[in-house]
Amino acid sequence: TILVLDFGSQTAQLIARRVRDQQVFCQLVRHDLSAARIREINPKGLILSGGPASCYAPGAPQLDPGIFDLGIPILGICYGMQVSCRALGCEVKPGKSREFGHTEMHCDTDNALFKGLPKSFTTWMSHGDRVENLDTQFVVLAKTSDCPNAAIRHREKPIYGLQFHPEVSHTQHGEHLLGNFIRNICGCDGTWKISSFIEQQITEIRERVGKRRVICGLSGGVDSSVTAALLYQSIGSQLTCIFVDNGLLRKGEREQVEYEFSEHFKTDLHVVDAADRFLDALAGVSEPQAKRKAIGKTFIDVFKDEARQIDDAHFLAQGTLYPDVIESGGNPDGPSATIKYHHNVGGLPAELGFELIEPLRMLFKDEVRRMGQELGLPDGLIWRHPFPGPGLAVRCLGEITKARLDTLREADAVFTEELHETGTYRKVQQAFAVLLPLQTVGVMGDARTYEDVIALRSVDTDNFMTADWSKLPYDLLQRVSTKIINSVRGVNRVVYDISSKPPSTIEWE
Ligand code: XMP
Fold first, then answer.
1. Of 257, 194, 253, nearest to 228 (Cα)?
2. pLDDT tens for residues 51-76?
3. Which 3 state secondary structure label does DSSP give 362?
4. Is the Cβ atom of 507 under 6 angstroms away from ligand 1?
5. What pathway is this protein said to act in by its record (predicted)?
6. Measured in angstroms, how far is the CA atom of residue 388 from the centroid of ligand 1?
7. Alpha-helix runs per DSSP H in 356-496
8. Surface-to-core class of residue 292, CB atoms within 10 Å of its CB (0-12 exposed, 13-18 middle, 19+ buried)
């Protein structure tokens, strides 16, 4: 195991991810985890993440200096390096200039960390502080024109520091460098697999749950399905699933969930038909955050009513992923601002009084998919594009009515079907239709029409935190447009969204 001490960086979880990509188990822990506790866990290495603060600022996250005496190899990245140097008695000061972005770095490759790397390559920097008077304790391994100690090694202990970020894709050879640390310096053998993670989770869930009952909200998507499958493998019929049909689902979604469930699980499924309750709560609401809040609140109410009927329920399992946590600004140590209120993250546990089980909280989407495959879930489900908790409501811009939702649902089904038929569905990461809150003029036969506009959105992305619009073939777009206009009543125009994230988001609301 490698532990990442999280000092609040946006990329802390990404570091863990990069380590797992090299088949070494890696987990995020608090930055101030005590040396005694770390000794008990007995990891093969520690990586200290970056962070938004200056380590000399009042209240800046610190570490237990005892970690330097454990004999465990340590790699400090950016803030992680500065806070270590400071704890070891060096001085950290504001730099003369902030260094940000791509920088050419020159390094000494005659050491375990830079072994096999070129003498100079591009790294990605983002810092304002610098460390001074290092020489008594550290040797410099690399420099850039602005930073005389871009990489350092302690003279006696296995402590390394990098001023740049090896975990981001903008740094060349970052994977090689992290690999050198975890294999050459920490001595990890790289035999961890997603199946080991599943086994570990199953054991933990069994121990934690005992004979008690767990309820799990199913949404039809891969995250909640994988969560349910994992729970089912751990505790079998002690699991009860709840599926809320909020009337905001894609075409055929409810039927598909019912079918897949009966194929894979021999335990209770409660399907709640709550479309009217959601429509009532959304009546007259057009502002996006207000929609999300109304849906989140209704979801809690509906869920609570249903859960109350399961008397012995003690735990609630949720398929929250890492990007959900970060986009809701929910990382307690993190600096990330709330961009959208994600209804599957905020509020539920406290309101419901259940203990939470979130086995996917540290994973990225593609890791969850690999887990789903390992757990034997069908391909159609595993490769289903993500669908937001508030569903079609945030794709039906403006006021929500049953008729408008039906129009959107039909258009979306035409688009999705065409993507499937042309083998394009698996090549893009998320594609859907959006119903705009405006009418435009058209001509059909000899008559003037004044009808709705559908926007198509399709994105290519690794992690949904950044995304590019998909360069879909023109003939595909043309077929989809013609089919929607011909077959979906009340639509006379189709447009294609060519914005990337950032500055746009994937969803329109
Ligand atoms: P954005 O629009 O923020 O979307 O670029 C990033 C990813 O998150 C999904 N998304 C949500 N998922 N509840 C969810 O479970 C939500 O409230 C929510 N809002 C956006 C979105 O579909 C995309 O995959």
1. 257
2. 888 899 998 999 999 999 999 999 99
3. coil
4. yes
5. Purine metabolism; GMP biosynthesis; GMP from XMP (L-Gln route): step 1/1
6. 5
7. 365-374, 379-382, 402-421, 474-487
8. buried
Nearest to 80, CA basis, from 59, 100, 55 = 55
Q: Among 109-123, 136-150, 225-239, 328-342, name the one with the lowest average pLDDT.
A: 328-342
| pLDDT of 338 higher than 70 | no
Question: Is 222's C-beta closer than 6 angstroms to any atom of ligand 1?
Answer: no
Q: Which of 31, 127, 154, 165 is catalytic?
A: 165
Q: Each residue of 19-28: pLDDT tens digit?
A: 999 999 898 8
Pocket test for ligand 1, best of 224, 292, 342 (most atoms within 8 A of CB): 342
Owner of token pair 């959208």: 340
Atom of ligand 1 nearest to the CA of 343: 17
Pure H helices in 76-172? 79-87
Number of H helices, E strands in the chain: 15, 18
Locate tokens 């894979």: which residue? Answer: 264
Determine the angle formed by the axes of helices 222-235 and 194-209, rounding to 10 degrees. 60
Helix-helix angle 365-374:222-235, to 10 degrees: 40
Tell me if 386 CB under 6 Å of ligand 1. Answer: yes
ipTM of the complex: 0.98
